[in-house]
Design a protein that fits this description.
Blueprint: H1 2-10, H2 15-18, H3 27-30, H4 35-38, E1 57-65, H5 69-79, H6 84-92, H7 97-116, E2 126-134, H8 140-145, E3 150-157
Antiparallel strand pairs: 1-3, 2-3
Family: Belongs to the universal ribosomal protein uL22 family.
GO biological process, one term: translation
Pfam family, one: Ribosomal_L22
Length: 158
Amino acid sequence: MQNLQGKLALGLLSSQSVLPQSHIHTSASLDVSRRWEKKNKIVYPPQLPGEPRRPAEIYHCRRQIKYSKDKMWYLAKLIQGMSIDQALAQLEFSDKKGAQIIKEVLLEAQEMAVRDHNVEFRSNLYIGKIFKFFSVGQFPLAAMTGSLSSYSLCYLIT
């Protein structure tokens, strides 16, 4: 036993093989269905001549936000339908924690649109919808308080 503890102290033996492991499976909450990101990979058929131009759609989300879904709703309604520059300006002057979170998500989405989806001008993005979801099944005690796992998702249109 003393030799085993010595090997553990020297790092020669993996600590997982000796110490008891936790039986709480935490990766299930992180492995949420990525269906919103999959919407970015949809390829539409070519348009016929004379058809109106289909606007590009870019989906981006952030999960596991620790903020009230009800407070997030007011901010989402504030910027829905605005251009991204107007929305960032509105969120800049809000002193709420959720405004800073949404601002970070919008900046991430804007950067992703330019980098991955070949959007030429950053300011040509408009906010179509901002959804908010609340996970009830994963954290039942926290779901009663309404503050642990709010999901926020933004949907941009060029």
